[in-house]
Amino acid sequence: MKKSDIVLGLFLGIAVFLLLGTVWLYPSLFNQSSRGPVAPQAQIQKPIRVPVDVFTGERSGYGMAAPLKNDITGDEFGFAEHPEISQQGRNGAWTVSKMIHNPQSLITSDVFGAQAIALISFSPDNHYLAFRTRSAIGSVAMEFDLVVFDIQSGKTIQIYAPEKLATYIGNTEPYIESYEWTGSKLNMVMYTIEYQLNSNVVEHFRVNPKQLWQYDLTSQAYTFVKYLEE
Hints:
The chain has helices at 3-25, 27-35, 83-86, and strands at 50-51, 59-60, 68-69, 76-81, 93-100, 105-108, 112-113, 116-122, 128-136, 142-150, 156-159, 172-182, 185-198, 201-206, 211-216, 221-227. The chain is an alpha+beta fold. The strands form 3 sheets. Strands 1, 12, 13, 14, 15 and 16 form a 6-stranded antiparallel β-sheet that branches.
């Protein structure tokens, strides 16, 4: 064997020894390059639990009977209770009445049940009068719906939460936070709330993202629009 071959073999052996030693001492240098760039860890979503005052702006009891005036048309409306029907449940039975003067009379709507109402508004064309109702469905649980009164026909449309949100599991229930008119459609902000009893005081919390839904009064159908940013 030539001397040059012995030197070359010795050199290659030392090189392999150094390479294996480097891999053993610093494995991360080689593991990372073999896997490619390391993806960042997925962010852990924090649970949503935001206090909600579900009673803000409500009109209840005899306060419902206070006249409501449309500032554009001058028409006045009142909320009349039906005592004979109201005695059958805890929510009360009401109608919306349009007051017509000279001679004084009333155009009365269908009956709807509620303990209180809120978010009262007229549609842009003054064809409808809408409001949110709150009704008891248990000792603590409640139901929030939107009632739309057709001023011309006297009929009412009761809008329940969409099926995706209408799940009364445990201490949770759907809630209508707000709405706005878009022609004969209603853009409604809704989400799920959880109720909790603390020292005989009921507290409510939002437990999922706010959702924007659109309700078409003509087809009486919902369309999901989007989730709203926190």
